[in-house]
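Priority: medium. Attachment 1 of 2:
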């Protein structure tokens, strides 16, 4: 019997041990090295794209385990992980202070105290080995001569604990963490007391900031011989959840350019509120920081190692489950009958290439047409396009849309279904039928999410986004069923500029993962234009080929604006008249087909 716990269960990174993190972590980013470099960095990407996993991996306990219990002093940097979602930084009562200077001061105090407490918590998890008891003396000196001075300067009046020879490294670090927690709680409790007062309430507690507390504290820590020579990396995860004032404060910290001692690594889910500082000046890339966008299309051929990295992630999880002799392709097998049928179509295309080929080589036409022709044949004979099977490791990778959590969530559901059907038997593969059903259910669920989205956004813009998704999915389906030379369209690009209404809907689609944004050359070759790609998670919803890359449509703003309100009209005209005729009949072309 193997370990039959679900190997694809998605766990919160901060809940994983360093050993488990190191055994499971695979760099799914092409730009991971940029994040590891000294300097302030923004990391943008949708939920589940691996940002939290990477930040957790950069913590010192993981970096130590990565090289076999490597001591902290030999590591290249010291990572402090602050998951904003797991803090109460956005205390509701802060809204009472929005129009006063106290708003900035208290918000910075809360943010600084939270970061400082996390710094000592990270040190307590770090591999600080002190066989000769030399480090503890250094730490006592830092506490007595550096840390306590900074604390007293902040206005902290509570009696500070002493440190004596009986205390360990962890004891001293724990004391400093507790003091930072107390400074945070004193301000947080003050804010809560505001709820019971209609008038102003004076605050008499400590106040700390980035330049007067955090930076000198870090500089003092870096001088200790057990610390790395490199900088401290402050890993602020899900910074979208900070309030507007805290966001401006964080940007102000970026503008100070303290990266040699303290580099800020900030992750967002594409909803970062502003890039202005508290002085209303903008921070700018690459002058103040660098940026990494994970939302690039990682499944694109020649542009990413994402498929190989997913394969490695799956291999490691199967290994952890005791399935060392099972490959990802064997664990997620394709529908063999379907693949044989597609292969036969491919052979026919290869044989006819000399007389009717469109590509430079027979293999080009086989890749371009065999799978769309199979799907077209299903629909043409029996209107049963839904019988197409979205199974097989390769297809599942593409359907995951370049976001590793999408793959793992689907795989976890597949495993749970297979386990329920198998009884006490070990799971050594997932049947194509289960794979197909799960990804279809997830595609339907993604469309159903629009109802929940209306609770967070204005309902009219959500309706327009849903209409756009339906229009694009239906359009790409009709193009795939046509006789065009390139039928695997999955994206649009503008030949003119989208107006404010269209841009607002497109940005909402990118933010919630219905669309991805990339860039391609514009039609006249004079620059680059945004390209918006429909999420491949929706391929089963519209019976599209998720492995397509090359096809895209140049569109005009007016066409997309109309699609926001009448999606069925677009799809119906394409279906009834054919793509070329329907899209060229209006005075202003609905779509320009390249």
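Attachment 2 of 2:
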């Amino acid at each position: 019997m193997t370990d039959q716990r679900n190997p694809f269960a998605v766990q919160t990174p901060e809940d994983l041990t360093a050993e488990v993190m190191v055994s499971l972590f695979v760099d799914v980013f092409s730009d991971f090295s940029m994040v590891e470099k000294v300097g302030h960095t923004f990391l943008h990407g949708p939920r589940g794209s691996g940002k939290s996993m990477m930040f957790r991996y950069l913590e010192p306990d993981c970096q130590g385990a990565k090289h076999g219990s490597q001591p902290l002093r030999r590591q290249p940097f010291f990572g402090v992980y602050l998951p904003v979602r797991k803090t109460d930084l956005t205390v509701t009562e802060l809204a009472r202070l929005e129009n006063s200077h106290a708003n900035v001061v208290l918000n910075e105090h809360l943010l600084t105290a939270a970061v400082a407490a996390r710094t000592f918590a990270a040190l307590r998890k770090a591999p600080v080995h002190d066989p000769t008891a030399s480090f503890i003396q250094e730490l006592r000196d830092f506490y007595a001569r550096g840390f306590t001075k900074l604390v007293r300067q902040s206005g902290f009046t509570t009696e500070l604990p002493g440190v004596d020879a009986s205390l360990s490294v962890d004891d001293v670090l724990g004391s400093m963490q507790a003091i930072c927690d107390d400074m945070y709680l004193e301000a947080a409790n003050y804010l809560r007391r505001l709820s019971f007062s209609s008038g102003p309430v004076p605050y008499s507690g400590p106040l700390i900031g980035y330049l007067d507390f955090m930076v000198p504290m870090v500089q003092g820590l870096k001088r200790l011989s057990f610390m790395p020579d490199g900088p401290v990396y402050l890993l602020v995860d899900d910074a979208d959840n900070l309030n507007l004032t805290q966001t401006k404060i964080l940007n102000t910290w970026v503008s100070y350019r303290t990266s040699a001692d303290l580099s800020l690594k900030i992750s967002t889910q594409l909803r970062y509120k502003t890039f202005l500082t508290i002085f209303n000046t903008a921070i700018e890339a690459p002058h103040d920081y660098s940026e990494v966008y994970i939302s690039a299309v990682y499944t694109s051929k020649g542009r990413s190692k994402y498929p190989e990295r997913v394969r490695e992630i799956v291999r490691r999880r199967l290994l952890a489950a005791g399935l060392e002799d099972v490959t990802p392709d064997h664990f997620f097998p394709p529908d063999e009958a379907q693949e044989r049928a597609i292969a036969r179509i491919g052979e026919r295309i290869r044989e006819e290439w000399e007389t009717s080929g469109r590509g430079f080589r027979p293999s080009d036409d086989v890749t371009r047409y065999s799978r769309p022709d199979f799907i077209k044949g299903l629909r043409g004979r029996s209107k049963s396009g839904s019988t197409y099977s979205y199974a097989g490791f390769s297809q599942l990778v593409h359907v995951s849309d370049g976001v590793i959590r999408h793959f793992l969530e689907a795989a976890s559901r597949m495993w749970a279904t297979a386990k329920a059907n198998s009884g006490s038997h070990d799971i050594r593969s997932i049947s194509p039928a289960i794979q197909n059903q799960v990804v279809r259910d997830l595609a339907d669920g993604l469309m159903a999410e629009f109802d929940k989205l209306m609770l967070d956004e204005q309902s009219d813009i959500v309706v327009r986004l849903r209409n756009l998704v339906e229009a694009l999915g239906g359009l790409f389906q009709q193009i795939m069923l046509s006789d065009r030379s390139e039928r695997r369209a999955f994206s649009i690009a503008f030949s003119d500029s989208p107006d404010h209404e269209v841009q607002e809907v497109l940005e909402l689609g990118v933010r919630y993962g219905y669309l991805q944004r990339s860039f391609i050359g514009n039609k006249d070759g004079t620059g680059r234009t945004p390209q918006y790609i429909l999420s491949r998670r929706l391929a089963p919803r519209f019976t599209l080929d998720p492995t397509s890359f090359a096809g895209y449509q140049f569109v005009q703003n007016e066409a997309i604006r109309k699609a926001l309100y009448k999606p069925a009209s677009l799809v119906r005209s394409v279906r009834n008249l054919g793509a070329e005729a329907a899209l060229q009949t209006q005075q202003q072309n609905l779509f320009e087909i390249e």
